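Changelog entry: the Cytokine-like protein 1 record was regenerated in this release. Current contents:
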Amino acid sequence: MTPRTSLLLLLLAGLPAAQPAPPTCYSRMLTLSREITGDFQSLQAAEPVESCVRYLPGLYLDIHNYCVLAKLRDFVASPQCWKVAQVDVLKDKVRKLYTIMNSFCRRDLVFLSDDCSALEYPIPVTTGPPDGQS
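Regenerated structure tokens:
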């Protein structure tokens, strides 16, 4: 073993495990919006479905769509499903996301569209790159 290899092994063995970077405002908003959308879809798919769930406003979030702020407000203000535990938890998450977007992380967010109808339907999940790209 050469001295250079020994030094490299010594350095690598003595380095502490790297800590992941702390979440940024943007990553927190993105993660929470995906979690809320997934929870909403699970709530709609659950059996038996609470009858009030079908009357809740759709909740398919895109934090890059300017209409998302109004969508979040509308969802929290909807009077359907009072006292349904799963909906209350979901509304709490929605309030948290709205507060993060509107207060703490307002400067970190860039809106790329204002297509309100796009927030009414599930976002299609893609598993690969768009056609023509590799």
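The chain has one domain: 22-115.
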